[in-house]
Amino acid sequence: MNPDQPLPRKSRSSNIDRRTRLPVAQDVARLAGVSIATVSRALNEPEKVRPATREAVMKAAAELGFVLNSAARALSTRRSSTVGVIVPSYGNEVFVRALSSFQRTMRAANYQVLAASSEYDLATEMQEVSFLLQRSVDGLMLVGGIHDPDLYTRAERSQVPIIQSFSLSDRHYCVGFDNREATFRAANYLLDLGHKRVAVVTGTRENNDRAGPRAEGVRLAMAERGLELIPAHDLTVSSGIVAGRDAFGQLMGGPEEQRPTAIICGTDEIALGIMSEASERGVDIPRSLSVIGFNDSSFSAVLSPPLTTIRVDADEIGKISALALLNLMNDRTMVQMTRITPELVLRGTVAPPAKL
Amino acid sequence: MNPDQPLPRKSRSSNIDRRTRLPVAQDVARLAGVSIATVSRALNEPEKVRPATREAVMKAAAELGFVLNSAARALSTRRSSTVGVIVPSYGNEVFVRALSSFQRTMRAANYQVLAASSEYDLATEMQEVSFLLQRSVDGLMLVGGIHDPDLYTRAERSQVPIIQSFSLSDRHYCVGFDNREATFRAANYLLDLGHKRVAVVTGTRENNDRAGPRAEGVRLAMAERGLELIPAHDLTVSSGIVAGRDAFGQLMGGPEEQRPTAIICGTDEIALGIMSEASERGVDIPRSLSVIGFNDSSFSAVLSPPLTTIRVDADEIGKISALALLNLMNDRTMVQMTRITPELVLRGTVAPPAKL
DNA sequence: ACATGAGTTGAAAGCGTTTACATAGACAAC
DNA sequence: GTTGTCTATGTAAACGCTTTCAACTCATGT
């Protein structure tokens, strides 16, 4: 337009060089009449500077609207005050709840959390972990104990502690519960009521140490009573509500004397799918079919009938995991395993078998 | 133990000084026989270095297991490759969905996302934003257009672009929809069926530009037909399923001729609560009461009866918001407003009023 | 032969903190 | 008065990158 007008000096970065550069510690130091080191101390270790000095610094900082540059801080201290979390999926309410309380706890300790989902895929998870390590997170929370073997190596190399959640392990720090025992107890409850044909349907068991053991628990309980969990009654489906609907079809398709009289589900979503399909096909729950879910999702209590389910305190898992990780990151001693106890919540979807 | 043994030199940071220090660019440079500048270029702008050199660098980097230190990078470039998102709550599936697709899109562009929830509180939101700005996020996604006035000032000061979602604005970049129009259409659908007493129940409307307009839309549709949305039929509740149950009690408590024949809900969770309570009290949906939800949550289609609801494509909102923000952060031109169209999904919870 | 210029590379100056170390006072003990 | 101990502050060197600028290498055109 106007070639006479001198172009603004190109700044170093591609961003516009604003006259209003953000204030840095040096500016605060100048205004407060102290050195930059004192500014840093006043902000990070207030007890180490004389009250009068401290206040001068605080005042100057407030006046300028100064905020510490966290990248510089991270570079200097070699800690990012950031932790990473990888959950299998955001579609499962229980993970979101755990994530949420994990985050709340971390936030209170002045940590930021970077979250990602693996979509139940080990390679994706590894990729996300790489990304997180590159961001030099100070700690990592993972779900379950099955991961890319490289993951542990890499994390250790970067000295990033890992906390495992939702399952137990004797080789890693963990906050979780015994998945097998949970369904074992649920199955026993059904067997006590007289059920003989109990089915189990879970999400994918590949690289998953929650779903597999849940099926195991049922098998075990039945075995103890001389019953067999027949293959047709042991289903692996993709997770989610629609998967539950499909499962119903597969389980209840055969002749009546082969159909299960009760189903234990790996998630409440699957249970909901089964209930929905049952209602559509006119199968009465619980009179003709008992159903037990897992997780006690928010909707479970208000279904009709309300869903009997295995409740897991996800908030607790998230919170304790966070506290544990905080300990680990600060080289404090730390119990290796925290065991959460799932609780069988009796509601309206279980009854004795019809033919009893 | 052994006082003769010299103590290991105390390292600068409190961490243990590992013999296995992580490799830095300098190490790669040395191994590849090039300068550190070339390493940086090979990694960031491969096309600017001769193929042979590039490969030498890559090989050396791989051999050492080198990863860029993102804090150093951020400090140097003044960009963190991190964006922040604040949603009102993780308890609302629709926000989680949007967040998830936002994240996926950002991730593909090599950005990390820091997420937080405001719990529908402006002060909390502002606090989180402060925290995010301190982390020097490059961009911000917020839900709705009502925020602490400081928020915009501070963001602008840091030159952090903001994208608003789930509602529209002519003052800010936004990806959302017309909340009033959405319920307006839903209300008209009910009115066309002959309903005269339509109620509306939403979550908190304070500092919320989604819930308020949703109620507005109903009022407007009724007004156009000479009907009045009476105060007793216009409810604000805390969000969630239990809130829905309460709402049912309040709305259906009065004498029959004052009860609404249809209810439009601000979320599917509220609708679920209402349905649950209705079923418990023996009120037949849809014959005695029609219900319309909002968001089309995953469980809505499998309720019995399946919930008629206003579907909002949260994945789309998340994805487009991310793309928009990416444009903004790269000083690219950008449409100011992207309008998503909600869709009324007809299912089983609406029927003509009983007394027609 | 020489200037021109495009394409590569290296040296070095940041980026904004933290922190080891030095220094300077103040005060007590001798 | 000297010495030593403390405490509060300042100096300056990292931290590990990116990027400007200059230098250098080869073609290429004249």
TrEMBL record, chains A, B:
SUPFAM superfamilies assigned: lambda repressor-like DNA-binding domains (SSF47413), Periplasmic binding protein-like I (SSF53822)
This protein's name: Transcriptional regulator
Pfam family, one: LacI
Stored InterPro entries: HTH_LacI, LacI/GalR-like_sensor, Lambda_DNA-bd_dom_sf, Peripla_BP_I
Domain of life: Bacteria
Keyword Ribonucleoprotein recorded: no
CDD domains with a match to the protein in the record: HTH_LacI, PBP1_LacI-like
Keywords for this protein: DNA-binding, Transcription, Transcription regulation
Ranges where the HTH lacI-type domain occurs: 26-77
GO terms for MF: DNA-binding transcription factor activity; transcription cis-regulatory region binding
Xref: PANTHER family: LACI-RELATED TRANSCRIPTIONAL REPRESSOR, TRANSCRIPTIONAL REGULATORY PROTEIN
Gene3D superfamilies the record matches: 3.40.50.2300, lambda repressor-like DNA-binding domains
Classification via SMART domains: HTH_LACI
Keyword Ion transport: no
